[in-house]
Design goal:
The protein is mainly α. The chain has helices at about 5-35, 45-80, 80-95, 100-115, 115-120.
Length: about 140
């Protein structure tokens, strides 16, 4: 595996770890809020509490799903799957607005996926892998 592809894979694994950690943090924050407000009290039926609870669950699911997707894409990149290159580029672009860490991770991932090593690693568009030696000629 070329070094630029290894770097891309590592960037996606690190991003996945950060996303899963963020999901766990949101889950902790919103569950703590639910416990402090109380599960069966009158305050728990207020609109703000309901919206915050739903928001916490949605954010947790969102970040956890992105983390799992990044791990799956990183595994596909390690195996040289063509779909992983495209999915990796999409995830790298989605990481760019997350300043500063996401921007760095997304930039390195894009650099690796758009470089010449990626073309060789993932093969040509028709699926034929490049060979390191010329094909045999008839004598």
């Amino acid at each position: 595996m070329p070094d630029s592809i290894k770097t891309t894979r590592i960037c996606l694994v690190v991003a996945a770890g950060l996303e899963i950690a963020t999901a766990a943090l949101f889950l902790f924050i919103f569950l703590s809020g639910a416990v402090l407000i109380g599960w069966g009290t009158e305050r728990s039926r207020l609109l703000g509490s309901a919206l915050l609870g739903a928001t916490g669950i949605l954010l947790t699911v969102f970040f956890a799903a992105f983390g799992v997707a990044d791990l799956l894409i990183a595994a596909g990149i390690a195996k040289g799957r063509p779909w992983a290159r495209i999915a990796g580029m999409v995830m790298a672009v989605l990481l760019l607005p997350a300043v500063p860490v996401g921007t760095v991770l997304g930039g390195f991932a894009l650099k690796g996926l758009l470089g010449p090593d990626a073309r060789a690693w993932f093969g040509s568009p028709n699926g034929a892998q490049p060979t390191s030696s010329p094909p045999p000629t008839a004598v």
